[in-house]
Specification:
Blueprint lengths: L2 E6 L6 E6 L4 E5 L7 H23 L3 E13 L7 E13 L3 H15 L1 H6 L4 E10 L1
Parallel strand pairs: 5-6
Antiparallel strand pairs: 1-2, 2-3, 4-5
Amino acid sequence: MKATVVWEPSEDGLGFEGEMDNGRTLKLDGNGQNLSPMEAVLISVGACSSVDVVEIMRKSRQNMQGCYCELEAERAETAPRKFTKIHAHFVVQGKDINEKHLARAVQLSTEKYCSVMLMLTGNVDITTSFAVQES
């Protein structure tokens, strides 16, 4: 996997475009016009772990109609302002969802499969919770 990040000169001067070796792109900046790099990391935590939860729940033959992850993070007050805490709350929507299956899916993602969460483990206090919404 390779990527290139290119500065996009502008009046504000903090816009960047990242491009993967497969051509996919993402705009980031430090002035709030696009996602900041830290916002992208937080969203990546939710997306990566949600992929795991959905895949595990499907393998468990759960009747899911939706899944979302609400994230809340705290950052250090001083530079380098890294994340100190992240909480991920998973909500799975469906009929007759087995909470034990969902608890196991969240646990497996957090402890075994989510590469983004696991990369942060030891540096960030990561907690999770979950809920089922009957539909």
